[in-house]
């Protein structure tokens, strides 16, 4: 990974972590039949690369979606 | 003759929530005197679903939770509708708050049996810190239908707008993760109608593929092509 990619990855990880902070530790995340507490979600983010990547993608897509919708509303 | 059947199992953590969401639909139907059959908890099993569908040729179907690409589940963990009995969905409307069933079950039901199928292309996610917001999002479409809107494409359009409002509301409350999940749920939702049919697909049967080439997607509704 080059310097540029590292910086982008760091930014995505930071944004994803901030997003996960919005889920209280005692709340539950339900994904189909899977149920995790907020605390478990944050732990999973640290150890499961695929989950972490998906979470980073989720925040980026949310941000993009919000920007596109705001632009359409103008 | 009832207008709607509501199938709502309750056998694990996620279905505890979806069961309550479906309760709101039952309450609305009671309030508006809309005839319905409520198959709740232990009653939400295949035999009962099949019997109701046989007895009521015009009844439409609502199912709240657990599904897979080719089936939707009942309270005993067994499918209530799958690719073996989905002919029972012929010419009906099916509103699904379950994971993935728009993929195969929805596509097959639409192609072969003319079912108007509302469902999800992906696994549905939500968080319990925003249960009210997710319930409003999941119930909006069927409530609009109960209120008299019969054009499912209009319902889909309005539901997306409604989802967007809730997403912004969640962002405003700082519930960013919940907002991100609802955006995913929104984009995974599908409604298979003649205006928005499923993407083209090939059959494993040579003869059906030939008919599909000749007659387009209408060829799916020919029961035995040889």
- Shape annotation of chain A: flat
Q: What structural class results from the helix and strand content of chain A?
A: mainly alpha
**Within the largest sheet of chain A, what's the order of strands?**
1-2
**CATH topology of the largest domain in chain B, what is it called?**
Rossmann fold
Structural class of the secondary elements of chain B? alpha/beta
The residue ranges of chain A in which pLDDT falls below 50 over 5 or more consecutive positions are: none
Mean pLDDT of chain A: 94
SS summary, helix count of chain B = 7
Largest interface: chains, residues each: A-B, 22 and 27 residues
Any overview of this molecule?
The complex is a heterodimer of chains A (74) and B (226). Chain A is built from 3 helices and 2 strands. By secondary structure, chain A is mostly helical. Chain B has 2 domains: 4-195, 3-Layer(aba) Sandwich (Rossmann fold), CATH 3.40.50.1460; 197-226, no CATH class. In chain B, 45% of the residues lie in helices and 18% in strands. Chain B contains 7 helices and 10 strands. In chain B, helix 1 (13-31) runs parallel beside helix 4, helix 4 (131-146) packs antiparallel against helix 5 (152-172) and helix 5 (152-172) packs antiparallel against helix 6 (176-188). The longest helix of chain B has 21 residues, at 152-172. In chain B, 45% of the residues are buried. The mean pLDDT of chain B is 94. Chain A binds chain B through residues 18-20, 22-24, 27-33, 35, 38, 58-59, 61-62, 65-66, 69, and chain B through 12-14, 17, 66, 99, 123-129, 164, 167-168, 171, 174-181, 183-184. Strand 1 (28-31) of chain A pairs antiparallel with strand 9 (125-127) of chain B.
